[in-house]
Amino acid sequence: MPETSDLLKIKTLGELKKSKYVSKTIKEELRDNLIEKLKKKESVFEGIWGYEDTVIPDVERAILSMHHINLLGLRGQAKTRIARLMVNLLDEYIPVVEGSDLNDDPLNPLSRYAKDLIAEKGDRTPVSWLHREERYNEKLATPDVSVADLIGDVDPIKAATLKLPYSDERVIHFGLIPRSHRCIFVINELPDLQARIQVSLFNILQEGDIQIRGFKLRLPLDIQFVFTANPEDYTNRGSIVTPLKDRIDSQIVTHYPKSIEIGRKITLQEAKVKKGQEAVQVGELLKDLVEQIAVVARESEYVDAKSGVSARMTISAYENLLSTAERRSILNGEKKSNARIADIYGAIPAINGKIELVYEGEVEGPVYVAQSLIGKAIRAEFLKYFPDPEKEKKKKEGKNPYVQITSWFAAGNQMDLLNDLTTKEYAARLNTIDGLSELVEKLHPELKGDEKLFMMEFALHGLAEFSLISKQALDHGLHFKDLLDNLFDPNKYLSGEEDDENYY
């Protein structure tokens, strides 16, 4: 095969023949280039994490088998990303008959236009080169998609202008699929495609012909089909008709990250850090906490498991977390900002927008559900850094590491951690609480300065989640006080409403 630089100099069919260029089908291209990458131990699907031992080997096996592929999985599982990365397995350039609507191979023309042009000009037929980035087409399946959109339709104006009968293929305006000849064509959310539209794909996938308004045209299209589908669609909106499913060679099931570490990799890779947000410092614990919210949400009785919890939730939540800390630093005129545990509550809008609630969740309300998920995530992470409060409270008073803190609140003391406290005010308020600094120094003596303050705040949130103290959400921050004081607060049920504060 000639070098790329030599290929691009070729401008006619005659020159292409002399170059000894060998045409391949798209599936042969994908297979051959995959084999080369596997031999060189090169990564094929860059930026896809957590699928190294599951989904990616399945996709590679499907490509080696030259199969059409259906990626089946819940939303936010990188199905479309995988399809788009398959473009990297195509040859960098392929020759096409210049002016062809169907990317005709000069050595193996398909359309009437290309055949007539080659018959007329022979070796002088002009040839252009198509880059692999232009060989990817994608269509989102929606109920309004028609056969004309995908396959094509007769163009009456073209027929009248050329004075041709409707049976002549030259009057056809080809749809997306014929125009994707020698390309990767992706249909996202396949079950959303109406059954009668799915039926129109049968012949293209198997027999290599298309039918438009009763006119059958032999058109052996060379396309790598990739479909994506959500299991929920099979019951809620539609299904893949059985004969079409039978023609899709490999169905590959995707999944969510199997560990917090993998989830973090994905979030940090995909989150868009805006100019100026580089100054926001986010601790490792807080990054894990964002991922833990997704883990908790996927197990929550309030969240619809069939819809899943997209990886986009953690990405958006992390972006909101950065913006919450950035906003505070701007308001306080501080050049740098350390993200705090309470900043995670600034991500509630991102959480609300990315989860589907079941009936019980709708009754409770999206804000309550989001707060509940954050609370459970804090509770899970707390046990990685501090002793289990449930076990410690059974010990004698002198051995319980939390007793000094709870006693301070029991004495009637309260603490407001407001959203926009300066770093100095934030430190002063945390250091006011008896025993909090000593607890962190004892269990995490390596932490100093801002890191120590962060862990002190985390301890406070954790104790609230284990019901040793009370935590209440205010419009402008959080309020901590003694748990019993909260239970007997005469203002809590004032007028039977909780408009001013959320208690949890």
Key terms:
alpha/beta, elongated, 14% strand, 504 residues, single chain, 4-stranded antiparallel sheet, 5-stranded parallel sheet, 17 strands, disordered C terminus
Folded structure, characterized:
By secondary structure, the protein is an alpha/beta fold. About 40% of the residues lie in helices and about 15% in strands. It has 24 helices and 17 strands. Strand 8 (about 210) and strand 9 (about 215-220) form a beta hairpin. The chain is elongated. Residues about 490-504 have low confidence and may be disordered.
Largest sheet: 5 strands, parallel
What does the radius of gyration come to? 31 Å
The N- to C-terminal Cα distance equals 69 Å
- The counted number of beta strands is 17
Short synopsis of the structure:
The chain is of the alpha/beta class.
Question: What is the topological layout?
Answer:
Elements: H1 4-7, H2 13-18, H3 26-39, H4 55-64, E1 69-72, H5 79-85, E2 93-97, H6 112-121, E3 127-131, E4 136-140, H7 147-150, E5 152-154, H8 156-162, E6 172-174, E7 183-188, H9 195-199, H10 202-206, E8 209-212, E9 215-218, E10 223-229, H11 233-236, H12 242-247, E11 250-253, H13 260-270, E12 280-281, H14 284-299, H15 311-332, E13 337-338, H16 348-352, H17 359-364, H18 366-382, H19 389-392, H20 403-410, E14 415-418, H21 423-432, H22 436-443, H23 449-465, E15 469-474, E16 477-482, H24 483-487, E17 502-503
